[in-house]
User: What shape does this take?
Amino acid sequence: MKTYKIVLKGTVQGVGFRPFVYQLATKYKLFGEVLNNSLGVEITLNATKEELELFIEELKLKLPPLAKIDSIEIIEAEPQKFSSFKIVKTKESKSKVALLPPDISICKECEKELFDPNNRRYLYPFITCTNCGVRYSIIEKLPYDRINTSMHFFKMCKKCEAEYSNPLDRRYHAQPIGCFECGPRLELRVKSEELRVSGVEAISGAVELLRGGGILAIKGVGGYHLVCDATNSEAIAKLRERKNRPTKPFAIMVKDIEMAKELANIFKKEEELLTSKERPIVILNSSLLTLNSLVAPNISKIGLFLPYTPLHLLILKELNRPIVATSANITDEPICTNIESLEKLENVYDGVLEHNRNIVNGCDDSVLMVVKDRVITLRRARGYTPVSIKLPFKLKQKTLALGANQKSTVAIGFNKEVILSPHIGDLDSIGSVEYYKKNIETLLRIYDFKPETVAHDLHPNYESTKVAKEFKNVELKAVQHHFAHILGVMVEHSISSKVFGVAFDGTGLGSDGNLWGGEFLVCDYKGFERVAHIEYFKLIGGEKAIKEPRRVALSLLFKCFGKEALELDIPTIKAFSQTELNALYIAWQKGLNAPLSSSAGRLFDGIASLVGVNQVVIYEGESGLMLEELYDKKEKSSYQFEYKDGKIDIRPLIKAIIKEQSTIKAVSKFFNTLIEIIATVYKNYTHLPLVASGGVFQNRVLLELLIERFPNVYIPNKIPPNDGGIALGQTASFN
Ligand code: ZN
Ligand code: ZN
Ligand code: FE
Assistant: This one.
């Protein structure tokens, strides 16, 4: 008999790991102890070598559902005497690298109890156990103990306390444990009636409000949702008008997978995602166009998700209809996480379903899609953060990466781990920058992290760059935007060799001061060489050109035809007045406020204008979505382009597209041309793995074509192709 010390790292805290170890030790009649420390879980065990081996084997095999072991270290320790096996209170230590589990949807057992009239938590909207429920959204700091979460305001009743302290109970150390008597409470406030109801009646009141066509704000896991009956066109129209969101698609929450199947054609992999413990929004092919015309006008896709908390389950079971569920926020502002911020939306909702458990860390819903059997993360947040991503090498310094300016995320990196924050959003308002800073503080606080290096985007005017410069006594590292896009994918797929990266993107500042976005980069972690790019065109009016595809198209036309472009009888020209056209020509010719760009994202905009589907964008990414709808799989041909000296001249494409009679043909051939462009440039680099990223690769059609043509292509799966993936890439650069 010897004494062994076993150190386990990974997702091992707050997931029922210690009671699991306790039960296992009891089974093998082994004495010793188990405790959480800031590194993970530490087990001390008196055992023979054979017993130890059996114990470890079964431990690996029968892990609790949410646990994940990254490493096990076993050392022989100084002999110690034990008279039983004990779970010992948490030890504090200096470096905090234990991984915090994300917020997870309600588990099957809790769901069963929720609807069991004999259970003491029957219909309790906050029922939870060690295998499910909130975590990240309620934690102040590690270690994950009740005292460090917003649950510390609630004093456990005797019954809950007994469950919480019993290692054999499913709720042993389930930090958010509570019941009707002692836990968080629900309250419904209906504005028109000055009415407040609590408890079970709050649910029926909320359902009644929704049935009547009202808009309800519901406090969820990482923020508030605005919700209405998705089968009620008037309610949706009211929500669109009040939220000033005329056409941008809404996500729909459905009661269960059966209801989801009534609204969309769902493949196996998509069903797995919908019903997974993370419960993301999944973008699917809609099968009910009448519903789509309201929730996603002119688009055949629909974003669905299933209820992930007992509260949502209770509402949807009783309502028995799909609901629109969109994040409650003011345009450009972050998701509302407390009643004070929600009240700014007072004119939007008719009632609030509120509870008294504070949201410490805001967290949006995650958004995923499946393309050619590959999972694409469009927004990484609830359920997925703060799960760490492994680096293929060890970081030399503790690194904080601040991301870009749109769809921001931030990351901390140490050793071989990178922890990415949830989706923060665009940094276009004071409120969103504050929220962004709060997310940085949260990451640094939870992990007690002091960065030695701060990585940021090359763009000097990005808010994230300004924040980077506020850090003192750190090494600053400016990383080119598209290099970071490609690096993110390399990290995700543990690629250590040089790669050929295609970054098709909206915009990002290039090393030459121009706005890049149609880039071909040969990269490793140390740096990149720009081997080719889409030839520059001018963005007339700078920022304005991003909002107005017609400006991009006009610039492309000037590039092809000079002033004669103004004589063309095509939608782009018709979208302007004669005075505007003349002024824009002068601006183009003289290069007044007309920065050079090689952006593939802008090219999409330009094409959308030329074929007449979109002249002025209402929401970001609209052109791409609309062009997707027009793609015809049967069309196999493409347009001409020229490739010389690393420059892709797209003038032949533009000239041909405006002569095309059929819009569908024009759009389809445009998509095919992009793939031809990639193939042409890649031809000289086929010895390198092909990596593709950047916001343009959120386009389902383009991705499908890319994967069909290059089945071995590496694309981002766990991180978004958009700027949400930048922080991961920044962390890994120059190593
Ligand atoms: Zn549970
Ligand atoms: Zn209780
Ligand atoms: Fe980007």
